[in-house]
Structures are given as structure tokens and as C-alpha cells.
User: Fold these one by one.
Assistant:
Number 1:
Amino acid sequence: MKHRARGAGERGAALAAALVALAVSAALVAGLTDAVRTEVILARERRSMVAALAAADACIAQHLATVPFGWDLDALLLGPDGAGGTPDDGTIVTPPGCTGSVARAPGPASPPRVLLGIDAAARGGRRLVDAVIVRDPTAATPALVWTTLPPSPDAVTGTMALDGADADPASADLPGLAAPAAPADLDGWLAAQRPHIAQTPRTAAPIRALPPPLSELATRAEAAGPGGAELLAPQGAPSSPPALALVGGDLVVSDARQGSGVLVVEGALDIRGSLDFTGVVVAVGGVKIAGGATLGVAGALWLGAPWPPTAPLTVAGHLTLRQSRAAIAAAEGVFALPRRAILRGVRDVG
Amino acid sequence: MRGGPQRGSVLVEQLVGTMLTLLVLGTLVAVVGTGTTLLLAAAARGEVEDTAQLAVEAFTFDVRRAGYDPTAAGLVPVSEARPDRLTLAADLNGDGVVAATSEETTAYACAAQQLSRIIGRQSLPLAGGVLACGLRYLDATGLPLAVPPGGLDVAGRSRIRAVWLDLTVRQRGTPTNRSVVIALRSTP
């Protein structure tokens, strides 16, 4: 068989076509790769930004959780050493991953507020956020029982009834207990006391909380011109308007008494008879309820611990607590209660 | 000198060659066409996703800072709340006043297949090709407030705790959806 020899002009277009195809394909792949790469970079940047923003929000929330209940925010401006005019003024202790500082907010001094500046970093992103921190305008209690120390294991040998529901169905349910302890520990305490403690279904689970500011509260109560134990009327007497009552030492209630407003006992509150109170009962030295005795509170019970610190709560008799926002509001009407610090605005700086 | 059989052989070769060439070219055109379509689709998808995401980011940014009031002047964070329009206020410079012509007053408007961010009196289109755009307002329990056509009144706006934006954008090709709920930081 005879084959023709290829001439110089007869190589065909296959190579050229293949090269063109390769070039076009390469251009397309390059374009596609570039588009995808750009989108991936953008997505990564966005994820970093969102993570950093979430870190800033978390940092603010965690810092707020460390601010004790109080009446103003001046202590925040003093820094960790609590003294003014020192280099640490305005600095704050923040969780890992963020730094922050506190400054006085512009404008009038009232209502109390500070500017919290947070610099947070996460996943390669970084965000600067300014936050306005104020005291909650609404008086509230973190729980029905708010203690300086967690209750001891044998605190309740009598009965304790907790009702976290308010008469207003729109109100949030309140925890039965708030204390500076891990919620799991408080749950455990509650479970161990189960035979002695009855909770309604609308009583929320115990929460961790910083101790109530009892020392400052007592000081402020003294300055507010309070009445004394005589404001606790015999049960059955016509109800009197809410008032602030301050008892300098221990208070022993050996008969049947009632009252409303704010009762501050700088020592221990020793119930040997019966006391019905509507409002806030503050016992700096803790509460003891003798066998057969009864303490009923519609509002809140804030407890310190006796010195030396032992159990803030000893219930051999009966303790009944139920939420009453109306009672708290009435108590606030006679004495300014401490408030939690809350966020009231943010500005993303960069 | 060429013989007859040789001439026929060349013709067949040319026909086969032409067929093969056409086949290769057709395949090449199809591949290039598919690649181009893919590239354009990817670019369009990326663009529409970018557009929607940028709109959501701007919305998030503005709702987060609504009601920023360092001087405690009593600023109202939401001054207008309608299903298709939202106006936010913030005292960003801390002078106690919300300037109506600056970034301290920011509005979002869904109109004419477009989502716009209005700063003061300047309107900035955030997204075109908007197929759906709606605003909802949630109260403290997380439930949507019923919004009359004229928008929420002062009492209704004071109950707003979060703002919900639904956005569907299609510029070329597949539409993309975004639903985002942003809580106001200036309310309890």
C-alpha cells in the first residue's frame, strides 16, 4: 500500500485546535477558580467578623455577669483595686479573648451608667464595640431566696414551699434559689432536700448569682430613716402601708406578726412564732425558723450568713415563699433596692 | 501520476477528517459553552450572595446600634416600623441629639424590587432584583407584633425587642434568601 508523504502544509488543525481548547479551558478554569477563591475569602472574612462580633457580645455578657447588684456603677470606674486615682482606674478584668475598659458616659450623672469598650478577637477577626451599661430601671430579685452562701445540706428539716409564679401570668417565672455556686451544686442541694421542699412547676431552676450587697444595703437603710421592729404589726391587725424597717441586731419573732415593704435585720432573723411579710426580707445574719414556727414571704428573702460563716438558712419549721412583682414594686417605693447591671445599647466601632 | 483508487481514498479521508474535525470542534464548543455558562452562573451566584449578605450585614450593624444613647437622653430606637420600612435612631457621637441628616438616623425601605438603606436624606441601594422583602417586629416573648398598614404607633414601637428581615434577591439565575432576626440592644 502506498502512503502519501505529508507536506509542510498538511499537518492539519488538530494541534492548533487542541492548543486553543487547552487555552480556553485554562482560561475558564482560571476564571472559575478566581471566582470561587474570591467567594471563599469573602466567606472566611465574614465568618471571622461574625465570630469576633459574637465574641464581643459574649465578653460584654460575661463581664455584666460579674458586676454585683448595686445602686450605681462607680465601682467599675475604680478598676480592680477599688481605689480611685490609681493606674488601674477604668480597667476591667475580662474573659480570655477580649480586653476592655470602662469610662464615664457623657452627659448628666443620672441615671448611673458607664461606657464599656470591648476589643474582642476570634477566628482571626477582631471587633471593637462600645456598650452602654446601666442599672436595671426595674427593681427585681434574682430568686425567691438569694443567699450569700449556698445553703448547707441539712438546712431544711422542716418544710419549704416555693412558688416562682407571679399573679401576673405575663411575668417570667422566678428561680427558687440564687447563690454564688455552680447551678449543678444548687440543683443537687435542692434534690437532696426534696422531701422537705415543695416547688410549684412554675418555679425556675436555681441559678448562680453574685451575693446580695447586704452591707451597703444596711448602710443605705440606716441613712433612709427607717422604722424599727415596731412596724411589724400583730397578725390580724389592719394592714399598714409598706414601710422600711431596720433592726440593728438579731430579731426574734416569738408571736404572730405581719408587715410589708422592706425589713432589714442586721443580725439573724429568728422566727419562733409566725411572720407574714409582703416585700423584701433582708437578714444579714441569716434566718432560723424554729420547729412549729412559720415564715411566709410574698416577694423575696435575701440572706447573709452568721459570723463565723455557717448556714444562712435553717428551717426546722415552715418557710413559704412566692413571687410577687407587686410586692417588690411596693418595697421599691419605700427603699431603693439594688439593681443588676444591664446592657442598654451598643455601637460597633470597628 | 495519481490513479483513480488513490483519488477516492483521499476523498474518503477528507470526509472522515472533516467529520472528525466537526466532532472535535462541536465537543470543544460544547465544553467551552458549558464552562462559560458555569463560570457565569458561579459569578452570578457569588454576586447575588454577596449582595444579600452585604444587605444583611448592614441591617445587622444598624439594628444592633439602634437606641445607642450614652447620655441617657431618652432616645427611642425605632421611630418608624412598617412592613416595608424601618427607621432607626442612635446617638453615635454622644451629644445627646439624634441628627436627622446623618448616620444617626438610618432607614431601610423595601420598594420597587429594591432594598435601600437611607442615611439621613441619602438613599443607598443595598440590593436590586429583590423578589421579596419584608420586615417583622418581635415583642419580648418573641412573637411578631401585628403591624397596621400605617405602621406601629408609639406604644407598639416601644414593645419592639427584635427586628426580622426576610429578603429574597435574584439578579441573574438562582434567587437567594436571607432571614435574619436582630435583637435591639437598647431594650431590656
Number 2:
Amino acid sequence: MPFVDDLIKHTSVSIIGTEKNTGKTECLKHILRRLDGSGHRLAVTSIGLDGEGIDQVTLTPKPEIFLSEGTIFVTTEAHFRTKKLDAEILDVSQQRTSLGRLITARVKGRGKVLLSGPSDTIWLKKLIDQMQLYQIDTTLVDGALSRQSPGSPAITQAMVLTTGAALSVNINTLVSKTAFLYELIQLPLWDNPLSEKMLQQTHGVWAVDEYGHMHELPFQSAFTLDANKEELFRHGHTIYVSGAITSRLLNTLRMQPNIGKTRLIARDFSKIFADHQSYQAFTKNGGQINVLLQTKLIALCVNPVSPKGYILDSVKLREQMQATLQIPVYDLFNL
Amino acid sequence: MILADIIPQYNGIRHITELLPLRSSAGRKRMLSQTFMTKAKDIKEELDKVEEMYGFLLNPQFEKPITAIQQTLMQIHDIQNSLNALVQKHIMDEIELFEIKRFALLCEEIATQLDTLSCQYIAVPDLNKVIELLDPESNRTAHFFIYSAYDPLLAEARRQYKALEGEQSDEAQLLREQCLNLEDSIRQRLSKNLHSHSSDLMQAWEAVATLDFTLARAGLALESGLVRPHIASDITQYEGLFHPGIKEILQKRNQRFHPWDIQLFDAPCLITGANMAGKTVLLKTIALNQYLLQFGFFVAAAKADIVPVDVIRTAFDDEQSELTGLSSFAAEIVRLQSVLSTIKEGKKMLVLIDEPARTTNPHEGLAIANALIDLLEKHRVRSLITTHYSKIQSSCRKLRIKGLKIPETISAITIDTINRYMDYSLMEHRSNEAPREAIQIARLLGLDEELISLARFYAGRNETEIEPST
């Protein structure tokens, strides 16, 4: 699969599902199989937000991952104890997750293990950075789209996206939903000398005036915007929201007379939680959205099988997805 | 009594412990469990340790080993549970074995650095035997695995299992089980062997904890300008006494903390002075320093000779006590009673009371204050009592904080600037009249003029009513 050749050029790659059961784990397994014996040094972990172990939606056990010798993995104490492989412990964290401390270990005799990981992205980033200690070439992170998404370019360098019948069993809806997400991932960078300074602001809402000065606006976040809307455009129409961008924010902005001049800046695509409709209405009316950090999408993988057993036509799905998104699409279940 | 009991009660102590540059949870636990020492010998031993580290910190020649120790301390995890499990002869799992190996290697590093320093008072036991047990391949890295080197049978079983290339056959299953059984017996053997070193490991844990706590106390002394106190047997004597927390706040505002010189005999001493002259701060500072000494810290003064006591009893507003919720008078009575019952047990005490009986009518309040001071005198209790009451009958020693000296040209001051005009130094005070500056200070602080003039009128009338002869 050509995307694996691209993947190994990055020090950290997240595998993000648009929904549960879109084939994240299958994708991770595929990458591991492909790189087995290649000499490329891998580390794998997960972000353990939903207590994993058991899939919270379908209540099916989360599959174990097969790891070969030399691979480093990070998992929680609880899952480390159930491992079916031989591993040398390299580190034990002091901080705890709900499933105990995090164990970093190197596979000494291949076998299976359940992956879980740090409970937040800050911790995850620290772990990824630590992998340098063990001369790791690429760290793979199993993750989801959520407030703590490792897909954020601030956390991992590149991303593999998985989508499929679990998101929708209607090919048209599935393609359109995925295309919207792809559009967010492709949002253009805000090419401006101020962007560095903006990145340092992790709280609040900011405006940039015509002279290029940043002003903090009196809002905690986009959620408290309605209270005094008139304050919003006091310093011009370029607005940076450091936190979540919601449908409500886009709808509020769209209603303003200056929508045509409005440029909204997000940290990265993972901060945009607006729905498709609000996003479209915002951009159709002339609003622009930029990001400070752009995500590198390595591949889009589709899973034609839904957790309830409904199977989409793989060829049709791939072709339609490819035609709409104009990027290569892989079906790892029908290779 | 341990330090953890005192921290929630006194903001001053809590502040000091927050400033302590502790680097490990071992050190933190050691700090919290430090006992309140009453014997001069015990205190001296602790202070010797701190002084030694203080000397290392001051000497640029030792910067490298000290930094190395500090960095190593930061890597020490809390492995007390694993150690307890070992002492109780539990069979260690891989994670516990890893923790013990890592700890032993870090201890070895610390021991090497302590050698460079020729440290006299703190020594980490030799854990080489422990390391050897957990490092059969002699890698000297803090990683752990049930290495094949532990048992040729395990090496062989693993080799055969690997040769099957992950087959799902019965043979593979059997080999896997064989490996796991061998690993279990190795863990049993290791746990048993390690158990015979458990007292060394426990001692090492204690040593590391003490080292961290001691180094932190020395670091704090250097950072906050604390000195080693001398242990005295009859007179407690401070020169340049200060409150580190308040000094820090004032420094941030570009203001100076005015230190005191004070002597405390085994008798009560009455402190008077204007409002805002710092009487309460003086009491808090003396309580804080007495605790610092008896928990083995350097103290906040330029020079200090301190008599250790069995019990420190205080009654001032700083305390976060279970008495909140009682009426202020009831709370005061409960506090006073606890002081008196301890006095009558014949314990050596330091008693610090801020304005006794101020929460009731001045007539009876004065009577209670007088009675209290009589009792403190009778039992020869080292004590400081602040008061605004005049007419304390006792012939006890009286000190006065000099108070406000405002140039004629200044007509208004603020809470921020009053500091400039206050003379905080202590002087012997012969009269039994407390200073009367409350109305003046209230006026300068901008209290309503009409109220001020009415207050002056009443103050004058009271004077003639109560004291017709003067």
C-alpha cells in the first residue's frame, strides 16, 4: 500500500476514525504488518479516553494488536498485565489513568496486547517526545475525533483517517460526511506573521485590527459569545478563537452585516465542531475559515462493513469517495 | 505530633512547606511525617544534617554532584507499596521488579555523588546485590524483563516457541504455557532472594527521603535567608526576627519588612502598640519560628537562640480550626481553656495569645486578661500576650511596638502607605497604659469626619467618667 511509504517519513502519525468501527484497528494492524521486518522502528499507543478495553458503543471487546519483536508499546497497567507477549519494561509513569499507570515496554517475544494510553493529549505529546530516547522512527497513535483528538497537528505530525459504514450505510451520506471532514482538514493556513504569536494564546477569543495588532475580546470562549455581540467586531473582522468553534458561533457570525469580510481563525481542524450545514451557510455567505496549523493527511481508508453487519459495495464506495475527494482511497478489508 | 498535623492549622507553616524545593514524593512524605522534636539532642541532629547540606549548596565546587543528586531525586518514583509487598514476602510482578531495579540503580547513582561530597550524615546502603539479582545480563540499564539468562530452560522454551513462528498449534500453546510457568518460578525465586535485602531497600528508601527533605530545607534556608538556630536552655532570643511569607509579600511591593529583636524569658510578656503596628504578626512569627526549630528547620532571623518547649499553644486569628462556627467568645474560651489545662499538666510551654478576652465587654474582658496573666506568671510560662487594654495590673514585663510617627505635613495615608510611617521596633514600656491611636489612625485612613469627631467627643467623656481624678 503506497501510503505506508509516506507514513514512515513522519515521527508521529495518528490513526483517527470518523466513528467507532470504521476500521482504525484494522488500519493499525495493516501498517504494523507492512512494516514488520522492514527495520523501521515503531512505537504504538492509544489515547485512552473511553476506558477502551470494551468498545463503549457496541460492547464488543476491543481487539488486541499483534506486535513483533523490537516494537515499543505504551499501554496501561491493567492491559499490560493481560498481555500475551514477552516485553521488557522500559518505563512506568508516575501519573495515573483510570486503568493505572502507563507502562512503556519493548516487545521481546511477539504476541498480542491491548492498547490503551494517556488520558489527555498533553501527556500523549510528552510520551511521543520521549520515544526519541528509544530511537523510535515513528510513533503510531490510535485515536478518535473528539475534544482530545491526537489528530491535531499539535500532537502528531500526520494522520490516517478511517471512515466507513459505521458512519452511514448510505454511500451518498457517507461520502458527503467524509468530504466535509476532508474539507476541514484541508482548510488553508493563515499565512501571516502574527500566526506564531496567536499559537501561543491557548485561551480566549482575539481580534486582529487593520494595523495588524491583536486584541483580546471579552469572551472566555465561543460559548459565551451571545452575551455582548457588539464587542465582537470592535477591532476588525479577523477573529481568532483559540478553543472550540461551534455551529452556534458560525451561525452568530453569519447573521452579522459584515459576514463578507469576516475571517475566522481556528488553531487546527480538530477544534472545529460545527455541523456541515452551519459551516456551509457561513462560507456561502462569504465567511472564510483559516487554521494556524495544518494537518497532513496521509491516507483515507474505508471500511464497507457496519457493526450491525450491513456491507456496502466496496468498489462503488471507493470510486465515489475518490471522485468526490480527489484523493486515493483504500479499502483495507478488501485488498 | 507530626508536621502534617500542623500544616492545616497555620498559614505560615503551610507557606513554608509550599516553598520547600522537594523533588520526590519520598521527600514529601518524609517532610509530612517529621515529628515535633522536644529534645535538644534530636533537634541538633536534624540541624547538623541541614547545615551540612547548606554548606554543600554554598560551595561552588560541589555544584555538579549536588545538581546530579537533585536530578536523580526527581526520577525517584514512589515505590513504597512495592517495598511493603516485598517485606511481606509477596511475589513480585514484573512491574514491581522493574520499580525496584530502577530504584536501586538510582540509589547507586546517589550514593556515588554522596561519596564525592564526603557526606557525613546521610548514607545510602549498598544495593549492588539487588541490582545484580535484577540485571542478569549486566546491562546496568533501568529496564526489566524476565530475561532468558535467568534459566537455560526458559531460554530453550522461548527459542522453540519462537521457531514455531506464531503457529496456533497445540505444541505452540504448550510451549507458551511452559514459558509462563518458568517465568513464574523465576519471579518466585527472585522475590525470595530480594526479600533478604528488603531491610537494605527500606533503609535506602528512608535515606533518599531524608536526603530530599534535608536538601530541600537547606535550599529553602539559602533562598529565604534563614539561619541555623542555637538551642538555648533558659532565654529565647532573636535578633533580626522576620516572617518569611510577609517579607516576601512586602518585597514584591517594594516595601521593607522591619525585623525585630526580642527576648523571651520563662514568664509572660505583654505587647502593646497601635493598631496595624504588627503585634499579631510578631506572635505569628514567633510561633512559626518555634515550630521551624522543633521540626528541624533553620529559622527566620539574623541570629536566634531558642529554648525548645514541649507544647506550643496559640490563640490568634490565623488558625483554621474546628472552632469556626462557635461564637467568637466561645471559641476564645475553648482556646484559653486548652492553654490552661496544658499549663496545669506541668509541661514546658510557649504560649502566644492575641488580645485575650477582647470579644466581650471591656470591664470583664480586662478582668479575664488580668487573671490570665497572673496565672501565666504563677506557672512561669514563657508567653507573649498582646492587648489593647490599659490597666493590666500585673508587674510583668511589657513591650511596646513604637507605632505611628506621622510628619505634620501628611494629612491622609492609605493602607498601602501606612507602612512608611510606622516604627515597628520594640521598646520596654513602663506604664500600664496602652497606646491610644485608634481614632487618629482611623482618621488618617479616611474614616468619615463626622464619625471621627463624635468618637473624639465620646473618648474624652469616657476619660473623665472613668478617671475623674486625672
Number 3:
Amino acid sequence: MSRIHTLTMPKWGLSMTEGRVDTWLKHDGEAIDKGDAVLDVETDKISSSVEAPFGGVLRRQVAREDEILPVGALLAVVVEGEVDEAEIDAVVERFQAEFAATGGAEADSGPAPQKIELDGRLLRYFERGEGGVPLVLIHGFGSDLNNWLFNHEALATARRVIALDLPGHGESGKVLARGDLDELSGAVLGLLDHLDIPRAHLAGHSMGGAVALNCARLAPARVRSLSLLASAGLGPEINGDYLRGFVEAGNRNALKPALMQLFSDPALVNRQMLEDMLKYKRLEGVDTALRQLSATLFAEGRQQADLRALVNGGEHPALVIWGTADAIIPAAHSAGLSAEVHVLPGQAHMLQLEAAEAVNDLMLDFLDRH
Amino acid sequence: MARKISYQQAINEALAQEMRRDQTVFIMGEDNAGGAGAPGEDDAWGGVLGVTKGLYHQFPGRVLDTPLSEIGYVGAAVGAATRGLRPVCELMFVDFAGCCLDQILNQAAKFRYMFGGKAVTPLVIRTMVGAGLRAAAQHSQMLTALWTHIPGLKVVCPSSPYDAKGLLIQAIRDNDPVIFCEHKLLYSMQGEVPEELYTVPFGEANFLRDGDDVTLVTYGRMVHLALDAAASLARQGVSCEVLDLRTTSPLDAESILESVEKTGHLVVIDEANPRCSLATDIAALVAERAFHALKGPIRQVTAPHTPVPFSDALEDLYIPSAAKIEATVLELLQGRKVA
């Protein structure tokens, strides 16, 4: 009994249409396990490894290094069991013929985010996967649902996973009434109402963690568990220089040093990331929203909300993940919590991007148990 | 995924959203409404290429068709701008600038200075520029340098739908006269454009490609040819940094210098005629302020010093091409290892 798998160019984030094959990490004839990184791919936004969603033997590297290929294009053939070369030739030929015929149409189809009007304001969200108790992903300050570029799909293998743009962010409405945690949490709970979800797992990154905690405070019965990544709300310290730098930055050169503080590999802050962030910051209302949030949540460079009691109250199981090199919110805030705590060595604030695989594994395991 | 619309639609949307937001914004020009008073949408062309199509019906009384008299209606727009309105006036082809130059050069551009900084002239002149439409010498010029030369004017040359919308909104809100140059051959270009309002600031070049070997500085339609050349050169092991100036006045000198300091080589690409041009201006800037960083001569890829030819074959030769840019870069780097 043998199976032939095709590994294709992934689609990371909504706007990815093509990727450049950087380096092959596995070679022809090498055995690979499900989840192994097979090759590195670089997009105009970010570079990362392509993981095998299946195990077997890598029989053919179809894509060459430095080749730029559209989303859905054939990268490699992986085989379980015995298959001769002629059969692999036939699979490759058939795939390429079909791919050429559809023109890689996959890139533009596929799941798309939705927009709804909630309390007179647009709210964008993006659903993937189905079944189980749904998981809601809540991004941090100044980010959007693309925060979960490398997590959303992986987490959606076992359940319905919804990522949203908080008010003031992404493609959601930019006008905030009070610009406080209750308003942001209200949008999350409002989305749950709209989708008829009585109870959900909440995962939050940075400020999104405080939003998740605050949802658990406002509506404890709606929250099944909390996954808190480099979360706000768990201690008073926050990098005020970063916040000021980020909010004030109006051009590339001002923004770059701020964003570099987020990553353990500063080379990830490339031209495209800066341009995308500037595009967001230029939208009408964003500057006001960011200043409003920063003033209410992080006045004078201190976190104003202490939500540790929500974790320690024991009502909701909690997973806490942090990076030791977090320059925005110190990993020390993870100490003394009644939660499953994992502190990843060397990781910085954007650990869900930079250590996506480790974070996904920890979250999947945690969610399966709760 | 952000929605994709054309450069032309992006301009139309910027006009519509600003007119909705600000009652003082109105548009006027030859055929801006087109067929006004005639029944039905089909009669309303909305400009010679339909850029303002549909606005006449959305904004009654605020889309004005003018007589074929640039001297008259551009003067009227300048006057309106001094009296608290924000006119967006269309000079159909930049080639017609001669008919209304006094109104722009000696009036609008001078008011702020002449009245001790107390006068504001929030005027936008939208105008079509560039060759490639087989429209011959009197409808194809790239007169960017003419405007850039005049203190008191701001000069904008968007290269993409995103920039077109954001720069036009910025132009409308700006309190100085702005010449907004729309390249005819870009009107159908598609790109991602946010539905919301946003502004792209003036004087901030856009780094469209990072590179180490040579800096390509350009603006307008030439941006795309420079990117094509850069992609081809990348396959030959040459890494180009591509800068889109976005606005020629104000000029983002800092970004040009920053890039040349890094790469040590500069090629300026300009669709305009070569004498007293943006290309020569930028070459002079770099020669004066970054000479120490240069590892070779500054090169310019421009149109020749002739009118735009009527012959198709000659017009194609006249406009700088990606192949010319590529050849110039390779020539410049000769003596260096080119893989």
C-alpha cells in the first residue's frame, strides 16, 4: 500500500500570491515526518519554513532554489511506501498540466474574510476550519488578523478558528468611543453573538491577551479557556519607548527601529513589512485610535489593567506562552500564575510568527485537553 | 484581501470621497461632466478618458464643465481657491499648460509668498502626462520639470492605484497649489486600494525594491519599467534598489542619498526630455552630496531631446524601455563581476 503526496506552495496570509523557494532543508531520498520543515520559502512579506502535512520519503524536489512560484504550485513529491520513478513522473506531469489549465486559480479563491456591521461599526473577521468549540484569535496593538499568518490554518485543523480585526485595526471600523478594554472586549463578545457561538476558546497576543482576559471578566460563561501569548494585563511593565515610537512613526525610517524591537530576528522587518504597516497607519482614524488606546491602556508607559486575578481565579484553564527575549512586555509577568506556562528561550514579542510551530503545538495540545 | 481597482477608479474614488467629506471641494474642467443636461449616463463622459465619470450625478452642481478656455477656467479655479473653496481643476493634457501658465506660475504659485504667508491657495490641477498613446507631440509630453522648477507649486506623479488615491486626497487637503500628473498609460493598471480614506504624504519616496549594487531613481510610469529591469537584472546577479519619488516637489533627497550611500551607483530614469530635467537635478544632487559614495559615473536614462514622435515605431524608441535601463545598469557596472 503506497500513497503519493504533493507538497505545494502555501498561502500565508490573505495577500500572498507567490513565494520564492529559498533553501531545501530536506533532500531527495530523505525520510520526513509529518510537521517536518521541508524547505524555506520567502514571500514579499516574510520568510518561513514549509512543513510537511504528511510523512513519507521526499522523492522529488520539483521546485528549484530561487524559483518564484504561485500559491498552489508543486514544490515536491512525498511518497509513503514503494513507488517507482515512472509513477512519480506521471504524478508531476498530471499536476503541472492541471495547474497550468486552472492558471493557479487557487491563489485568488479560497476562504475570504467577512465584514459585518456591529454596533454601527464595521468588523472584519476570518473563519477557517469547522467543528469543536470555536477558537477566537485576538491580535495585539496596531496589528490585525494577519498577526496569525502562521497559526490560523494550523490551529484550524481540529476546530473552527475565527480571527478578527479589533476596532481601530486592520479593516475594521477605526472610530473608537472610549478606546478602552471594555470596548475591545465588547467587539469580541459581539462577534460571538453574531455568529451564535455560546462559548469559545480565546487566544490573545499582547494587548489581545488583555482583551481576552477582560472578556473572561465581563462574560465568564462565554469563555472556555484562555491562551495568552506575550500577554498584556499580567503586570505593570510595558515598553513605553516602543509604544511612543510606534504611535509617532510616520515614515519608514522612524518605524523601523520600533518594529525591530518586536522580533528576535530584526532582518524580518523588511521593506514590505514597513510599507504594510505605514499603509495601515495612514488610514483615516488610525492615528486617533492608536493614541486613544495607548492613553487609556498604557498611560505613561505602564499597563493600567491588572487582570492576573482572572488567571489565578481558576475559573478558566489558561495557557501562557512567552519569549525570554521579549522587549515589549517582560516574560517575568508569567511568574506566579496558576496556568500552564511555557517560556521559550530566545524568542521575542512576535513569538507566534517567529516560533509558530512551537506555539501551534503548545496551543493544539492545550486546546485538545480543554 | 484588499480590493483591487484601477488607477483611474482610484482617482475617481478619491474625488468622490473628498467631495462627500468636504463641501468646499468641487471639480471643473473641459468635459469633466460631459454631456451635462443630456439625458442618461452615456452622454456624460466624465473627462476625455472617463476619469470623472459618474461624479456629475452624485454631486449636483459641483462638477462643472467649462468652455475650451484654460486661461479662463484655470484662472477661475485659482480665484476660487483664494476664497475658501478647494477646486480640483482638470487641465486635460499637460501640453496645454501654455494657455494658462500665468495663472499657475505667476499667480497661484506666488500668493503665499506675496501675501506674507497669509494667503492659502488650496488648488489641485489634475493633468494627463506622458507618451505611449500614439497622441503625437502636442498631447504626450512629460512636463514634470517645468512645474518642479517653480517654487510654490507641489508636483505629484503617482505610479500606482494606491498612491493615486492617497496622494490625490493629500493634494486636495493641501493648502498649496498642487500639480497632479496622471500618466495616461497607467489608468487601466489594477492594484490593491483600501476603501477607506487615507493620505500618502508628499516628499516621501517609496522603496519598491531593496538592493545593494545600484540605485534606480524614477517616478510615474517609469517605475514599472525600472522594476522590470530590476527583476531581469536580479536573475543576472545584479541587485537593484528601486526608488519611486512619488512627488518631485517636494523631493525626498534624503532617501535618494541614503540609497546611493549604500549602493554606490545611481541610474536616474525619467520619461521627460533630458535637458534641465528631474534626471539632471537628481544627478546634480548626488554628485554634490554623495560624491564620496559613488563608485562610478551617474547615468541617466531619458527620452531624447526631441518632441514626442508621431510615428509608432519612433515613439516606441523615444520612450525609455526596460531593456535600455537594464543595458545602462550593466554598462555602468562593467568591470565588476556580473554573474
